[in-house]
Amino acid sequence: MQRLAPYLQVAPLTLILGVFLVVPVTMIVLVSFWSYDEFDIYPDLILDNYQWILTSPVTWSLYLKTLYYALVTWAITLLIGFTISWYLVFHVKNLIWQIGLFLLCTVPFWTSNVIRMISWIPFLGREGIFNQALMGAGLTGEPLEFLLFSDFAVILAYVHLFTLFMIVPIFNSMARIDPTLIEAAVDGGARPWQVVFEVVLPLCKTGIALGSIFVIALVMGDFVVVRTMSGGQSATVASAMMNEIALLQYPTAAAGATILLVVVTLMVAAILRVVDVRRELAG
Amino acid sequence: MASNRDSNGGKTGAAQGSGGLTRRRLLQTSAATAGAAVGSGLVTGFPTVWSQKLKDVTLLHVGSSYSAIIDIARQASQDLGFKIEMQSVNGDALVNRVVTQPSTVDIADLEYWAVRKVWPRGVLQGIETAKIGRWDKISPLFTQGKYPDGREVTLEGTAPYEVQYTEEKEGNRFAAGPTDHATLLPQIYNADTLGIRPDLIGRPIESWSELLNPDFAGKVALVDIPSIGIMDVAMALEAKGEMTYADKGNMTKEEIDKTIAALIDLKRQGHFRAFWNSFDQSVNLMASGEVMIQSMWSPAVTAVRTRGIDCQYVALKEGYRAWAAGLGLMRHLDGLKLEAAYEYMNWYLSGWQGAFIARQGYYTPVLETTKAAMAPDEWGYWYMGEKAEEPVKDPYGNVMEKAGAVRDGGSYEQRMGNIACWNTVMDENVYMVRKWNEFISA
Predict the structure, then answer these.
(1) Where does CATH 3.40.190.10 sit in chain B?
(2) A226 CA to chain B: closest CA distance, Å?
(3) Span B2-191+322-373 CATH architecture
(4) d(C-alpha A222, C-alpha B246), whole Å
(5) What is the pLDDT of residues B199-240, one digit of tens each?
(6) Where is it mainly found (chain A) (predicted)?
(7) Hey, is the C-beta of B199 within 8 angstroms of any chain A C-beta?
(8) Which residues pair with B313 in a beta bridge?
(9) Contact B25, B46 (CB under 8 A)
(10) CATH architecture type of domain B194-318+411-441
């Protein structure tokens, strides 16, 4: 019984990971080697699906676009996440206020993703509120068209949707910083920017790493936001998979998914290589 | 329509406890309306036990949002005495569901281009035309591939007639001409064209070529359903004289390459404002003034107009891009459920549904029952292209046009009699969609 206990303890997690992670991922990888015709898919072991994806210029331009979105969104959410956390942790002294303001950050997330995204459309449109306000104030004569159905709109929506995923882990790790450490740094003659970059930032590495993983993984896998906010003018890697599924070409979509999985895993691995999250968390 | 009212009465009677009798009366009524010769088979073929149990049957009808409308299911359940449930799933997801999870669907409500993909997969069973009382009343567009006046209908794209019949009940091939088994029971169809904002454009639009006119740069939208979007563009390119196609509905790789190259050029010049893939997106693009000319569906035009914004579904000289949808029987249906499904299909052609969808601008395969189920003034507006004497109402009774309005494009014969191509999937579909993706990511 004594020897069984650890196995029993680990069983639920193993079961969940097995059923919801290992089995589906294995299936996807398996199917990616299958062949298909217009009407069915057949068990097989072919590399055509990968060959087609890897040699298609569309794939490369989609990856470039997706990475562009991911990096820009990452940089902006990081900046916002870091500054908001900074404010909450170091400027708001009262704990009640701190928690209250933190919860306030989450309020927009009580509404659905779709609503938060779609509500930008009437706001940014050619005859939208923002353009009318600009023209009303005499700042522009013509409505600004880049506001909607553009990369700007896509990134705006990503930032709006995903910033919280950056705020939470950064806030969490920043809140653990002992304030006396900063006093010590200042007393030791550190300039304000040195406090930020040489004291606080390194101590927030874990939070930043976790937030980055969330944001990058979310953007890399998205196809809904990009569709809606670009007005169908842009596509991401996942959009291509959607199109293939629509054509009942599951093997190609599975190959695309496998490649994306590898790419995202590599990105996460790179992040984890820079920051040893496990050690930092334990510490 | 009278027979429907009778069967409503029958339903009430059943609730009071004389189930068997009213059930039989209902069957007789529907059989009588279904036409004596074939319809009689429905009645005699039914063991009494079945007819009693029929009311326990539930049929799941899965279709697109514009055709699987819950009001139709409600009315059918009321008239037929058994339960019809409806689910709406759009576009490719619908085809996916029917093909990969056939047992989760009883009645598949598909467009004809989809049946071209779905039928060979062996998930549907042939509909015995002998069991469809009004089969011979169905528009010859479906049953013979001809206009009512005898002219041949274009076969560009997937003309319903090409995939209407099948050799055998459970086969996977199509038949070249009429047989005893149909793939789908025709139920709605329409002629699509471009939607415009006449107030913003300020001049008449008469040709598909206007879709690509640089005057409208940055104010044009296209439907992002590759198989349909490319046809709209092909209509425009052909009208401009820049391309000629042997069959717009079945382009060669070379034709696809040239068309997509032209599209990428236009996209780089900022010609398109957006690409939409759902009904509401197309409505919002038009209503908000983001675009002034775009691919559009008839009810979307109506939706823009009900907001008080001028929107026109223009008749273009090159003709319309037509589409049609029908009901398919899933292969797993048998026994009582199958009989119920046939009853349901016969109900579809009995008038109520035809009148309902006519009010959102769609046509029905059996004109006479629909005509009987509509007020003469409504029939005049929707089908005859006549001036409406009274305000025109949508299916839900909301006023959508003032008295005196005339339908864009005119009568059924003018609109449905000028088909340039049909919605389709091409033989080179896979290649085409890949090229389309290039265009979208360009």
Answers:
(1) 2-191+322-373, 194-318+411-441
(2) 11
(3) 3-Layer(aba) Sandwich (3.40)
(4) 39
(5) 999 999 999 999 999 999 999 999 988 889 999 999 999 999
(6) membrane
(7) no
(8) B195
(9) no
(10) 3-Layer(aba) Sandwich (3.40)
